[in-house]
Amino acid sequence: MDNFQISSPDASIILDINLIDHKLSYSVKQDGQEKLGHSTLEIFENGKVTILGAKETESDSTWKPVWGQHSSIRDHFRELQLDIDFDGVAGKLLARVYDEGLGFRIVLNEGEKPKEGNFKLTYKLPDGSNYYFPKGETEPVGPVNYNGLQEVLKQGNGKKPKISVPLLVELKDKSYLSLLESDLFASTGIGSMLLGGTDQTDIVSSDNKVSMTKEEWKSPWRVILLGKSAGDLVVNTIPVNLATPSQLENTDWIKPGKTLWDWRVHGYTAPDGFVYGINTESYFRFIDFAAEKDIRYFLIDDSWYKHATEGHFELSEKLDLQKVIDYAAQKGVELILYYDRKHGEYGDEKLFHYYNSLGMKGIKYGFMGNDVEFTKSAIQKSAESHLLIDFHDGPVPFTGISRTFPNAITREYCHAQQDSRRAFTPESFIKMALINAITGPLDMNNGNFDLTGINSGLRQKGPKETNSYVSTVVSEAARTVVIFSGLVCIPDAPEAYAAKADLFEFIQKLPVGKWDESHVLHSNISEYISTARRHGEEWFVGSVYSQKGGTLDISLDFLEEGKQYEVTLYEDTAETHGKTNPEAYQIRTQNAKKGDLIKAVMAPGGGHCMWIKPVE
């Protein structure tokens, strides 16, 4: 038999797999509508495939992540296993279908194999689709049609340009689809997934050459997510369900949380005349504020050392690091320390042990590049030294790794607000919140409050162009809940937060990472997003609008029936504007119950926050 069909548990998704002329092909329908037409799958280029047997199973279980967008995750799927001869190599194809998408994995048995393979899928998407995808630390690309996508791919200066995952696809019926991968950890000898185009208007996973050995080999899961809205894909649990379960026996030391950060504050002048810089006194001020506001971490960025050589750091004379470490310990604040491979090589074999010996709780790792095996090793070594790890500067997406190694707390797979200093628009934020965030937690550094000062050029590392940072302080607060991360890095000065202490309360109360459930209530790419997250009986809702400004009707249907709640609303005012008056805001409270409607009115480039708690 060469034709197989398997459906999702609720029968809404149907996957057909066929063997035609010894080549594997597949197609996908949802609710009777074709989502992917005749598409192909192979592991050895132009290899001959023979199907030897088939087995269908169903699994329904629940597991609890160490931290995440949901405290309990259901893993319910149907799986088709095809025993296959891949051009003389025995193995199997696993096709796992969920109610919200599906994944493919190839497993090759032990034994002789060609030295090199090429795990390649094509994706035949419907005509008339719009495409969106990340573009490093600049605004994501899109919407573009297929011809526009091909134009992007031609801009490679003689190289073979590829598209980073996820590829987000808006279909003609306004439903959404995303292409990405999960569980890269379980695979060896393969780079992270990239995408390209073909002459037949298909999308194709790139020439991702696989180095083969005699051992059993697993591919990553190639994942197709389906949703009625773009926001559905951001909270889809399929990528973490497909990831290898936690490899850590003890995870008690892994604590998600908020962190203050020094890097974007340099040059800020406090009301008492103190000017922040890379020095001991500045860091004492951060630590004092973190202790006062119950912020778990303080992140010390670059320039605490001048150069690194094998097993040795040449410390900067600008600050007394040991004094800072001792002071933080005295105040009960935990430290995370940056490491930049461009400034010399300490050596990863010793690096993580050294950070642990300093009493650090985490490492912010910069400039490791898109190197899968190196990144995998760094995650494992940091776990051995009980260190959280936050990857920066073009990291591997590594979707699902937070399940496998929960110490992989976040990564800068985005424009981290001021980091590249060139993508400051609300539209770029909303796109990243609906595109990049599909791959998992993002370290985006939201939460600037001194927007006027930043825009005027008073910071050493503010925008390259003055008055180019478009946002409002309420939008900045909202972004801290819209973007999911195990480490929420808030980048402004303690005094900037103290001056707006009533608004800062929203950020202060956020139970970072330990969410019981998460929902994207409204989503429109580059226009708006509204996200609700629950911790215990409390809800935090954040909404952000483009430079058009607008109103979202937020239904409180997610509240518990029969309970009364107090809602604290943090709002733009009628005078607020993301360019001309970014720091105007108002706060009010009202009572509410399940089913009530809140009108979230947002200024151009503005936002809206709600903290909802039961009435005692």
Automatic annotation (TrEMBL):
InterPro entries attached to this UniProt entry: Aldolase_TIM, GH, GH-type_carb-bd, GH97_C, GH97_catalytic, GH97_N, Glyco_hydro_b, Glycosyl_hydrolase_97
The keyword Transmembrane helix belongs to this UniProt entry's keyword annotation: no
Glycosyl-hydrolase 97 N-terminal domain residues: 6-245
Residue ranges constituting the Glycosyl-hydrolase 97 C-terminal oligomerisation domain according to the UniProt record: 514-613
Domain spans labelled Glycosyl-hydrolase 97 catalytic: 265-412
GO molecular function: carbohydrate binding; hydrolase activity, acting on glycosyl bonds
Coiled-coil annotated spans: none
Pfam families: GH97_C, GH97_N, Glyco_hydro_97
Keyword Calcium among record annotations: yes
Cofactor: Ca(2+)
Keywords: Calcium, Glycosidase, Hydrolase
Gene3D superfamilies: 2.70.98.10, Aldolase class I, Golgi alpha-mannosidase II
PANTHER family per the UniProt record, alphabetical: GLUCAN 1,4-ALPHA-GLUCOSIDASE SUSB-RELATED
The protein's assembly and partners: Monomer.
Protein name: Alpha-glucosidase
